[in-house]
């Protein structure tokens, strides 16, 4: 199975994947860069689900923070912003999008400040490095979530 086959499978694996892949290519990343965006996205999702569970809103806040930190470190702020905007396009809940944007911005700032440490790591290694940071930021209130309305 070639690289192109893997990319095609990834593109068809979920509804967000084509949007992320297209956003990565619009941001100037080639096919291998766009595929790396998908790998980082998957690693952030998995790490957040594993380490954020048990507290409402925490997995989503962690995922956005870690995802954007890793993307910013690897591809730069402009590419990370383009990909984040594509992810939020068409989101039906503006309140959720505002929370995601806040957490994305926190991740972008962290990724910019720590690019040298994060850029060369494999996605899973980057998440291992980012999980304790995300948990600490959650505990300090630097990451946010949408509280249910009563």
Radius of gyration: 15 Å
- Given the structure, what is the number of helices? 8
- The average pLDDT value, as a whole number, equals 88
Measured between the Cα atoms of the first and last residue, the distance is 51 Å
**Percent of residues in beta strands:** under 5%
Determine the fraction of residues in helical runs and give it as a percent range: over 70%
How many domains make up the coordinates?
A: 1
* Principal-axis shape: globular
Which secondary-structure class do the elements indicate?
mainly alpha
Low-confidence stretches: 8-13
The total beta strand count reads: 0
Q: Largest sheet at a glance?
A: none
User: H/E order of the elements?
Assistant: HHHHHHHH
Description:
This protein is mainly alpha-helical and 150 residues long. The protein has one domain (3-140). The protein is built from 8 helices and no strands. It has helices at 3-11, 16-26, 31-52, 58-75, 77-88, 94-113, 115-118, 123-140. Helix 2 (16-26) packs across helix 3 and helix 3 (31-52) packs across helix 8. It is globular and about 40 Å long. The N and C termini lie far apart (51 Å). Mean pLDDT is 88; it is low at 8-13.
Brief overview:
The chain contains 8 helices and no strands.
Helix and strand arrangement:
Layout: H1 3-11, H2 16-26, H3 31-52, H4 58-75, H5 77-88, H6 94-113, H7 115-118, H8 123-140
Helix pairs in contact: 1-3, 2-3, 2-5, 3-4, 3-8, 4-5, 4-6, 4-8, 5-6
Describe the structure using short key phrases.
150 residues, mainly alpha, 0% strand, globular
């Amino acid at each position: 199975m070639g690289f192109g086959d893997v990319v095609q499978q990834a593109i068809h694996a979920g509804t967000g994947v084509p949007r992320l892949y297209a956003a990565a290519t619009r941001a100037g990343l080639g096919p291998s860069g766009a595929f790396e965006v998908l790998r980082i996205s998957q690693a952030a999702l998995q790490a957040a689900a594993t380490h954020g569970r048990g507290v409402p809103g925490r997995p989503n806040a962690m995922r956005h923070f870690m995802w954007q930190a890793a993307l910013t470190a690897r591809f730069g702020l402009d590419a990370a912003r383009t990909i984040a905007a594509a992810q939020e396009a068409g989101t039906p809940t503006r309140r959720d999008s505002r929370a995601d944007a806040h957490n994305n911005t926190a991740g972008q700032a962290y990724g910019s400040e720590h690019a040298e440490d994060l850029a060369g790591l494999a996605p899973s290694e980057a998440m291992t490095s980012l999980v304790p940071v995300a948990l600490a930021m959650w505990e300090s209130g630097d990451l946010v979530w949408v509280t249910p309305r009563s």
